[in-house]
Specification:
By secondary structure, the protein is α/β, with parallel strands linked by helices. Strand 9, helix 9 and strand 10 form a beta-alpha-beta unit.
Length: 347
């Protein structure tokens, strides 16, 4: 862990209980598509963005605590959960646009973004596209840092994935999947740590429309070689934006080494590792997760974005480049990762 920049005394907050009705799904139609979301609480806005194949339900147990001090908005991304699942653009850039448009309809101008897995990539892309609307970034087991990703996701990105996923709905298949996951858990494998969540992801694909949306989303970020987008080439733009990275040390989907790489590439970032946690550290230790989010938002000032500062960062360029600052060991390591994935871009 490193020190958090821009520390200040904790703000006075008024804790309030959250009613059951606030946790129910709400809906807004944006661009003709129904967007589902959960919204609760009062105070500074906190946006929770789930990962691929998941939904806002993944945050349900955390929302009541977070909503005591924040206005919490947890969307079902397009193609996920109770939101519509059209044949559409499911890139991280499109998702960032969708989050912006939903927040605009809700009258929210700026927010702290919490993104898990794919949602971490969406949060980073949102901060890149709309820095003036981003107060802080909290990235949880985020995608878009390195090429590595679980081999099963690479397999599902291949042709024929529709047929493979459809077999999961055949009679008896859910039992077999559950038994396989239970065995991995008994053997104390890293993948077994996320057993319950993996079963939930299988259940989240009940029909062809859901499966098509899942595959289109996956193929936008993963191919047979691994992740195909990166945020490393523009991480330097987070300078001055409070950023915290949260990762499980036994993450089998996005390896923990990606956390250290992102931490090195993001100036002033803070890194917190959850021991004996997999890809869902906020499920493994929800109390610690909530405590870290509350402490981080209370002790850091929102990013003070200006067009002049943004221009200065862009002109100066990435550390180690010809237009950037002098080469350092850190920037050389980042450059190696960028060369390894030179074709990847989150633009």
């Amino acid at each position: 862990m490193v020190d958090v920049p821009h520390r200040r005394p904790g703000r006075a907050v008024r804790l309030r209980p959250v009613g059951d009705g606030e946790l129910e799904l709400q809906y807004r139609v944006v661009h003709g598509y129904r967007r589902a979301f959960r919204m609760a609480g009062e105070g500074p806005a906190l946006v929770l963005i789930h990962g691929i194949g998941d939904s806002s339900a993944t945050w349900a147990e955390l929302i009541p605590d977070l909503a005591r001090t924040h206005t919490v908005i947890a969307p079902d991304l397009l193609g996920h959960g109770a939101s519509d699942k059209p044949r559409a653009d499911y890139s991280v850039a499109a998702y960032a646009n969708g989050v912006r448009d939903l927040l605009t309809t809700l009258g929210i101008e700026s927010a702290t973004l919490v993104g898990h897995s794919l949602g971490g990539g969406v949060a980073m892309q949102f901060a890149y596209q709309f820095p003036e609307r981003t107060e802080r970034l909290i990235l949880v087991s985020a995608g878009g840092v390195g090429r590595e990703v679980n081999p099963m996701l690479r397999l599902v990105s291949l042709p024929g994935a529709h047929l493979m996923l459809s077999t999961l709905r055949l009679p008896g298949m859910r039992l077999q999947v559950s038994l396989a996951i239970h065995l991995m858990k008994m053997l104390d494998t890293d993948l077994g740590l996320d057993a319950r969540d993996l079963v939930n992801l299988v259940d989240a694909l009940p029909d062809e429309t859901s499966r098509n949306a899942f595959i289109r989303t996956l193929r936008a970020v993963v191919d047979w070689r691994g992740q195909v987008v990166t945020m490393l080439d523009r991480c330097y733009l987070t300078e001055g934006m409070p950023t915290m990275l949260l990762w499980g040390d036994r993450d089998s989907v996005v390896p923990v080494r990606h956390a250290y790489g992102a931490h090195e590439a993001m100036p002033g970032s803070r890194l917190e590792i959850f021991e004996q946690a997999g890809h869902f550290p906020f499920h493994t230790d929800p109390a610690r997760f909530v405590s870290l989010v509350e402490e981080f938002t209370a002790t850091t000032a929102p990013a003070d974005w200006s067009r002049e500062h943004w221009q200065e960062l862009l002109v100066e360029g990435r550390p180690g480049t010809s237009a950037g600052r002098p080469d350092t060991a850190r920037s050389r390591a980042v450059e190696r990762d960028l060369r390894e994935a030179s074709e990847r871009s989150a633009t």
